[in-house]
Give the backbone structure.
Amino acid sequence: MYLILNFNLNKLKNKTLSLPNKNTIYQDVPSGLKVLLAEINHAKAKVLMSVLINEQYDIYHVAHSGVPLLRDVKQLNPDVIIIDIESPNRDMLENLNKISQFAPKPIVVFSEQQCANTTINQMVKSGVSAYVVGEVNQTRVKSIIDVAIARFELFQGLKQELADTKQKLSSQKSIDKAKRWLMETKQLSEIDAYHFIRKIAMDNSQKMDDVAKNILSVASIF
Protein backbone atom coordinates (compact mmCIF):
# COMPACT_ATOMS: atom_id res chain seq x y z
CA MET A 1 0.00 0.00 0.00
CA TYR A 2 1.19 3.51 -0.71
CA LEU A 3 -0.03 7.04 -0.22
CA ILE A 4 -1.47 9.51 -2.68
CA LEU A 5 -1.56 12.89 -1.02
CA ASN A 6 -2.96 16.12 -2.45
CA PHE A 7 -1.88 19.43 -0.97
CA ASN A 8 -3.29 22.85 -1.82
CA LEU A 9 -0.77 25.66 -1.36
CA ASN A 10 -3.36 28.21 -0.25
CA LYS A 11 -4.58 25.92 2.52
CA LEU A 12 -1.07 25.07 3.67
CA LYS A 13 0.34 28.57 4.01
CA ASN A 14 1.34 29.38 7.58
CA LYS A 15 0.61 25.79 8.64
CA THR A 16 2.91 23.01 9.77
CA LEU A 17 3.32 20.37 7.07
CA SER A 18 2.51 16.83 8.16
CA LEU A 19 1.76 13.57 6.40
CA PRO A 20 -1.76 12.11 6.80
CA ASN A 21 -2.39 8.66 8.16
CA LYS A 22 -1.56 5.69 5.96
CA ASN A 23 -4.14 4.79 3.31
CA THR A 24 -5.49 8.36 3.25
CA ILE A 25 -6.53 9.42 -0.26
CA TYR A 26 -7.80 12.86 -1.20
CA GLN A 27 -9.91 12.83 -4.34
CA ASP A 28 -10.45 16.56 -4.97
CA VAL A 29 -7.64 17.92 -7.10
CA PRO A 30 -7.24 21.72 -7.25
CA SER A 31 -5.91 23.44 -10.33
CA GLY A 32 -2.18 24.07 -10.66
CA LEU A 33 1.05 22.26 -11.41
CA LYS A 34 0.78 18.56 -10.62
CA VAL A 35 3.78 16.81 -9.13
CA LEU A 36 3.88 13.04 -8.67
CA LEU A 37 6.44 12.48 -5.91
CA ALA A 38 7.66 8.91 -5.43
CA GLU A 39 9.55 8.48 -2.18
CA ILE A 40 10.33 5.61 0.19
CA ASN A 41 11.30 7.70 3.21
CA HIS A 42 8.40 9.74 4.65
CA ALA A 43 10.74 12.09 6.51
CA LYS A 44 12.53 12.95 3.30
CA ALA A 45 9.21 13.27 1.51
CA LYS A 46 8.25 16.00 3.97
CA VAL A 47 11.44 17.89 3.11
CA LEU A 48 10.76 17.71 -0.61
CA MET A 49 7.13 18.71 -0.14
CA SER A 50 8.16 21.70 1.97
CA VAL A 51 10.49 22.83 -0.80
CA LEU A 52 7.84 22.37 -3.47
CA ILE A 53 5.27 24.29 -1.45
CA ASN A 54 7.71 27.14 -0.95
CA GLU A 55 8.23 27.23 -4.71
CA GLN A 56 4.50 27.86 -5.27
CA TYR A 57 3.51 24.43 -6.57
CA ASP A 58 -0.11 23.73 -5.65
CA ILE A 59 -0.56 19.98 -5.92
CA TYR A 60 1.46 17.04 -4.65
CA HIS A 61 0.90 13.33 -4.96
CA VAL A 62 3.11 11.06 -2.90
CA ALA A 63 3.56 7.40 -3.75
CA HIS A 64 5.92 4.67 -2.62
CA SER A 65 8.72 4.54 -5.19
CA GLY A 66 8.93 0.77 -4.95
CA VAL A 67 5.54 0.14 -6.58
CA PRO A 68 4.49 0.45 -10.24
CA LEU A 69 3.81 4.09 -11.08
CA LEU A 70 2.31 3.86 -14.57
CA ARG A 71 -1.26 3.51 -13.31
CA ASP A 72 -0.91 6.61 -11.15
CA VAL A 73 0.73 8.57 -13.97
CA LYS A 74 -2.18 7.74 -16.28
CA GLN A 75 -4.76 8.50 -13.60
CA LEU A 76 -3.25 11.71 -12.23
CA ASN A 77 -1.63 13.04 -15.43
CA PRO A 78 1.10 14.95 -13.56
CA ASP A 79 3.13 17.76 -15.10
CA VAL A 80 6.34 16.34 -13.67
CA ILE A 81 7.44 13.18 -11.83
CA ILE A 82 9.98 13.33 -9.01
CA ILE A 83 11.55 10.08 -7.80
CA ASP A 84 13.80 10.02 -4.75
CA ILE A 85 15.56 6.78 -3.87
CA GLU A 86 18.83 5.61 -2.33
CA SER A 87 20.07 4.21 -5.64
CA PRO A 88 18.39 3.43 -8.99
CA ASN A 89 17.49 -0.26 -9.27
CA ARG A 90 15.96 -2.60 -11.83
CA ASP A 91 12.40 -2.09 -10.58
CA MET A 92 12.73 1.67 -10.92
CA LEU A 93 14.19 1.35 -14.42
CA GLU A 94 11.25 -0.87 -15.41
CA ASN A 95 8.89 1.78 -14.02
CA LEU A 96 10.64 4.47 -16.05
CA ASN A 97 10.56 2.39 -19.23
CA LYS A 98 6.81 1.83 -18.93
CA ILE A 99 6.14 5.50 -18.24
CA SER A 100 8.31 6.55 -21.18
CA GLN A 101 6.49 4.17 -23.53
CA PHE A 102 2.89 4.67 -22.46
CA ALA A 103 2.66 8.03 -20.63
CA PRO A 104 5.82 10.11 -21.14
CA LYS A 105 6.34 12.90 -18.60
CA PRO A 106 9.28 15.02 -17.37
CA ILE A 107 11.11 12.91 -14.77
CA VAL A 108 13.55 14.11 -12.11
CA VAL A 109 15.49 11.49 -10.15
CA PHE A 110 17.13 12.36 -6.83
CA SER A 111 19.57 9.66 -5.70
CA GLU A 112 21.65 9.43 -2.55
CA GLN A 113 24.33 7.36 -4.26
CA GLN A 114 26.17 7.79 -7.54
CA CYS A 115 25.28 4.98 -9.92
CA ALA A 116 27.27 3.43 -12.76
CA ASN A 117 27.43 5.10 -16.16
CA THR A 118 25.49 2.20 -17.69
CA THR A 119 22.62 2.83 -15.27
CA ILE A 120 22.68 6.56 -16.04
CA ASN A 121 22.50 5.76 -19.76
CA GLN A 122 19.54 3.45 -19.10
CA MET A 123 17.77 6.20 -17.17
CA VAL A 124 18.33 8.71 -19.95
CA LYS A 125 16.98 6.23 -22.51
CA SER A 126 14.00 5.71 -20.21
CA GLY A 127 13.12 9.39 -20.32
CA VAL A 128 14.82 10.85 -17.23
CA SER A 129 15.25 14.58 -17.80
CA ALA A 130 17.37 15.31 -14.72
CA TYR A 131 19.48 13.14 -12.40
CA VAL A 132 20.72 14.64 -9.13
CA VAL A 133 23.06 12.88 -6.68
CA GLY A 134 23.40 13.75 -3.00
CA GLU A 135 21.35 15.75 -0.53
CA VAL A 136 18.47 17.84 -1.80
CA ASN A 137 19.58 21.45 -2.22
CA GLN A 138 16.41 23.40 -1.49
CA THR A 139 17.56 26.45 -3.44
CA ARG A 140 18.04 24.41 -6.62
CA VAL A 141 14.87 22.29 -6.68
CA LYS A 142 12.76 24.72 -8.72
CA SER A 143 15.49 25.34 -11.30
CA ILE A 144 16.08 21.58 -11.61
CA ILE A 145 12.37 21.00 -12.24
CA ASP A 146 12.19 23.90 -14.71
CA VAL A 147 15.17 22.58 -16.67
CA ALA A 148 13.75 19.03 -16.62
CA ILE A 149 10.44 20.23 -18.06
CA ALA A 150 12.21 22.33 -20.71
CA ARG A 151 14.46 19.41 -21.72
CA PHE A 152 11.47 17.07 -21.86
CA GLU A 153 9.51 19.43 -24.09
CA LEU A 154 12.54 19.90 -26.35
CA PHE A 155 13.08 16.14 -26.60
CA GLN A 156 9.39 15.50 -27.30
CA GLY A 157 9.48 18.16 -30.01
CA LEU A 158 12.54 16.58 -31.64
CA LYS A 159 10.96 13.15 -31.31
CA GLN A 160 7.80 14.37 -33.05
CA GLU A 161 9.84 16.03 -35.80
CA LEU A 162 11.71 12.77 -36.37
CA ALA A 163 8.45 10.82 -36.51
CA ASP A 164 6.99 13.34 -38.97
CA THR A 165 10.11 13.15 -41.13
CA LYS A 166 10.01 9.36 -41.18
CA GLN A 167 6.33 9.47 -42.10
CA LYS A 168 6.99 11.92 -44.94
CA LEU A 169 9.83 9.76 -46.27
CA SER A 170 7.65 6.67 -46.08
CA SER A 171 4.80 8.48 -47.84
CA GLN A 172 7.09 9.78 -50.56
CA LYS A 173 8.49 6.29 -51.07
CA SER A 174 4.98 4.90 -51.60
CA ILE A 175 4.10 7.72 -54.01
CA ASP A 176 7.30 7.17 -56.01
CA LYS A 177 6.61 3.44 -56.28
CA ALA A 178 3.04 4.10 -57.41
CA LYS A 179 4.26 6.61 -59.99
CA ARG A 180 6.73 4.10 -61.41
CA TRP A 181 4.01 1.46 -61.70
CA LEU A 182 1.70 3.90 -63.51
CA MET A 183 4.52 4.96 -65.81
CA GLU A 184 5.23 1.34 -66.72
CA THR A 185 1.66 0.05 -67.04
CA LYS A 186 -0.22 3.15 -68.24
CA GLN A 187 2.60 4.62 -70.29
CA LEU A 188 2.37 7.89 -68.37
CA SER A 189 5.09 10.45 -67.87
CA GLU A 190 6.30 11.06 -64.32
CA ILE A 191 4.38 14.35 -64.15
CA ASP A 192 1.19 12.76 -65.49
CA ALA A 193 1.52 9.87 -63.04
CA TYR A 194 1.89 12.35 -60.19
CA HIS A 195 -1.18 14.33 -61.30
CA PHE A 196 -3.13 11.08 -61.71
CA ILE A 197 -2.49 10.17 -58.05
CA ARG A 198 -3.16 13.72 -56.93
CA LYS A 199 -6.50 13.94 -58.77
CA ILE A 200 -7.77 10.70 -57.23
CA ALA A 201 -6.72 11.95 -53.79
CA MET A 202 -8.51 15.28 -54.26
CA ASP A 203 -11.65 13.72 -55.74
CA ASN A 204 -11.97 11.30 -52.83
CA SER A 205 -10.67 13.58 -50.05
CA GLN A 206 -7.77 11.23 -49.43
CA LYS A 207 -4.09 11.65 -48.82
CA MET A 208 -1.81 10.99 -51.78
CA ASP A 209 0.01 8.46 -49.62
CA ASP A 210 -3.21 6.47 -49.11
CA VAL A 211 -4.01 6.58 -52.83
CA ALA A 212 -0.48 5.44 -53.64
CA LYS A 213 -0.80 2.51 -51.23
CA ASN A 214 -4.11 1.51 -52.83
CA ILE A 215 -2.48 1.60 -56.27
CA LEU A 216 0.38 -0.55 -55.00
CA SER A 217 -2.13 -3.00 -53.53
CA VAL A 218 -3.73 -3.34 -56.96
CA ALA A 219 -0.29 -3.64 -58.54
CA SER A 220 0.58 -6.54 -56.25
CA ILE A 221 -2.31 -8.56 -57.69
CA PHE A 222 -0.87 -8.47 -61.19
Notes: The CA atoms of residues 130 and 147 lie 8 Å apart.
